[in-house]
Amino acid sequence: MKSTACAVLAVVALYLVGDVSSECPQAWFDCGNGRCVAMFWRCDGQNDCGNHKDETGCSATQSRCPADKFACHDSSYCVPQIWVCDGEADCHDSSDEQDCHSSNCTGYRCHNNECIPAPWRCDHTEDCIDASDELDCGGAKNSSTTTVAPRCDVDQGRFPCLDGQCLLPSKVCDGRKDCSDGADEGSFCKVNECSQKKCSQGCFVATNGSTCYCNAGFRLMADHVSCADIDECVEDPHVCSHGCINSPGSYSCHCLEGYQLADKSFCKARDPEPLLVFSTTKEIRGLWLRSNRYFEIHPAEAQAVGVEFDSDQHRVFWTDVSTRKSSIHSCRLDGSDFKTLFSAEKTLLEDLSLDWVTNNLYITDSLVKRILVCATDGVSCSALITDSVDAPRAIIVNPPQKVIYWTDWGSRPAIMHASMDGTNIQQLVSTDLGWPNGLTLDHTTNRLYWCDAKLSRLEYLELATLKRDVVMNEDVFHPFALAVFEDTVYWSDWASYSLDSSNKRTGKQHHRVLRENGHHIMGVHVYHPVLRQRGIQNPCWDNPCDHICVLSGDSYMCLCRLGYKLAANKHSCAVTKDFSFVIVAEEDLLYKIDLNRVGAPVPVTLPVSNLGMISALAFDWSNQTLHYSDNRHSILSAINVNSFEQWTVHNHIGSVFGIDFDVTHQLLYWVDADKYTLEACHANGSGHAIIRDDLRRPVGVALYPFAGILFVLSAGEKPTITSYTMDGQNPRVLPLSTLLLPVSISVDLVARTLVWADAVRGTIESLDLQKVFTGTPFIVQQVKAHISSVCAAHNEIHWTSRDQASLEYIDRSIEPSVHRHVSLRSTRNGTFSRRVIVAAQAPPFAPGPCGQNNGGCSHTCLPVRTTDRSCFCPPGMALNADNTTCRVENGTCRPHELPCAGSCIAATDWCDGHQDCSDNADEVSCGSATCPSTDLTCSNGRCIEKSWQCDGYNDCGDSSDERNCTLPTCASHQYTCGSGVCVPLYWRCDGSEDCPDGDDELNCRGVRCPSGHNSCANGQCIPQDWTCDGHADFMPDLAH
């Protein structure tokens, strides 16, 4: 890695003062050829000077060269084979340019062995590096008797000598032989008929008699007497850099604002000095184009591609791609203040261009086939164009015209353009294209330039007339990116590992600006203030939009981040229903995380309150509702994730660690470990049904509605996963022998796999849903932490752990071996808080038998397989003979139940502040309510089960059930809470509050464990047989 610290001041100073002298400052190395390079590039094995001076006197390190490289004879260097016999000495000893005369050259071979197109020979432009193409062309330069003309034309008053010289008329027939062969003083001099010719401008005696000629800037007419003005502006459109004005016999060039004439035709940009920024596969580099000072800006993270410079922030932006993800990075010009705007998986961000008016970046994503627009802070990104895009590569914006252009080299290659708000998409060029790669705009001529890697050429399009022309197709191999500044086009060429330049109009004056041995030069960008028109009104200056503001005609348009849609007021943004996200619960906090956004996933805390200890989550996608179990408050509740409205679905649950939601039938399922039950109710809490009451410590449930089945995960001495039809019938235990402490289960409806997590084994495992009874479990992930939950959806698996404040996940569809991580930035004091997750993604639609008219059931309809259904009745009611309607069982209610409008409800639902009876009888006259003999009447009139009295929990709500209690005696393997509740001893000091008052986590240092238990360093007690069992059971103390 090359550091830039020493060169920082020099770089910044150059930018501020513009042109500087050719002497290199102290922090730079003088190459002796006019180029200055950073001193730390000396002896780094790279020919940064171009003439090897920075590598001269260095010890050779290269002993063998790969097959695609040429070994220099002095064994100091390996150079690409394409550099051999190309006219430039790349080896220290010039051995790559020896014995080259036998090489094929279809044009003209320069004296240095360089090969150039034949028409460039003797065209009065030095195209060979050694200028040998302009030697021996005829005409003696700098002679007092001759002058060099484009051609020796008699009509222009030139006399051609046989030896190739051209003489002025005054030198012909003057009695002095100016031609070496004396041809200018022949016998024809004796006849002079100029006085009879009546020439309009000039006449001289030539070998074929007296001849009229015209002065420079005029042309002899068909009568061979008259002269007419030549309109140089029309004859040669390239005669001036910018504008051309014709005049009799001459012309004049004029420059646009910010430029000045450097000679008769060339417009040069005024100060400051122009900066060329480019990327290689390994780093971002810069080159000052006037002083020729060359420096590193920042290393690439993986492979840098597109590059851009923002003068307002003095920052360089670039895209960085790998097989796993794409990123947008930025830093200051001196390499400091490096930032990652965002990283996005499943993308290929190839190029970017800055709208300097609104400060937005326009970005091509060739993998997802879209064009993005993002704020330069990386917070907000919107998919600007998703239609008419196949494989977008390069992009350029034109804010003055409110237009963007991009290349597309998909199945139908094209040059495209659209308005900057993503509307008015049109094709500009769609024929004779191969791989249109780089793209740039020449603001001075209103031409759009591109390079084609398949056709190996540079082209441009006149945007005003749509006239198309090839600039260069010789000595171009695999061009990748290009930029235009003044009269020069710069481009990177993968085949030659070089950055090249030529005249932007003619393709001549071709030069290799620099070469990178073994590293492709990628993106190319030139910055100068004159390229960015100032004074353009910015309608987005006062941030009128929620997310992103873009130019649109004479005004602006608001866009929303991915996953949001624009509201009716055209300024606000709201979440869309097809927006997928993950929700993580941590005690009484809920985080919402978008894993598919363009940018780094950021946990957003949902603004909800009155949460206790969340232990399980499920999501109703159709209503954007999050269902959760709160074991601290003993309720099942729901939250709308858009409006954040909260409501209670079901009361008086026991320990619920598993819930799932059937979107098709709007049914909530849960398992209760205290009651040994599988239960269900409608989304609004009605139609409560106990499906099974014989489960053994159930801790998870997962639905597979496509097949009409569900899976229950049971812990205990013999953990099991059991499948049932969704009405709780037809139990079948999966033949799994490796379960130790399963804690969570999930079904991926897209991948059609069953996934579960085992906290003791530290594994996440899966089974094909078509082979749950015959297949072998596959270990998807081995996890070192103490897993607390897992969720599978859309080929992604997400999990959380008790001892890590993060969300972990993998994507099995692209890179199953790559483990990703999102920090939750936890603020909880309980270091090992339980976290549970749900992937809130739209499930595939699955019509079911209960979808219409509740399946004909009077109370609760549960699907059976995919076409059948079973009707269930609430507790205290029985199914009639029609198997659809319910009646009060035996005319009376069961213990712990009270009559309610012809049915029965649990006594605990009486006077609980929530209407359960259709006539509201359960909430009327609560102070005088009469509870069943089997229940306890609280002081506030509420009825609770007698077994709840003196259990350490405030079930009445007024604590009357916990008064005058005698504390029980806990067993030796149990811990006695301050309220009298007994909990397992190993829950003591495990980082999770299990006692009602949380006192099991107090004073954990110095705890003495009873016999049969070992003491961990953090005070936790664990059974002795957990020691040296291959599993880390103690929770590390993260507080120190």
Oligomeric description of these chains: single chain
> How many E-type strands?
80
Q: Can you say what the CATH homologous superfamily of the domain at 287-531 is?
A: TolB, C-terminal domain
Top-tier CATH class of the domain at 287-531: Mainly Beta
Structural class by sheet pairing and helices: mainly beta
Largest sheet: 6 strands, mixed
- Widest sheet: strand order? 1-2-19-18-17-40
CATH arch. level architecture of the domain at 287-531: 6 Propeller
Which fold does the CATH topology of the domain at 287-531 refer to? Neuraminidase
Mean pLDDT: 84
Helical stretch tally: 3
Q: How much strand content do the residues show?
A: 35-45%
Overall form = elongated
The radius of gyration over CA amounts to 41 Å
From the N-terminal CA to the C-terminal CA, the straight-line distance is: 36 Å
Helix content: under 10%
Q: Which regions have little confidence, pLDDT < 50, spanning 5+ residues?
A: 1-22, 139-150, 1029-1040
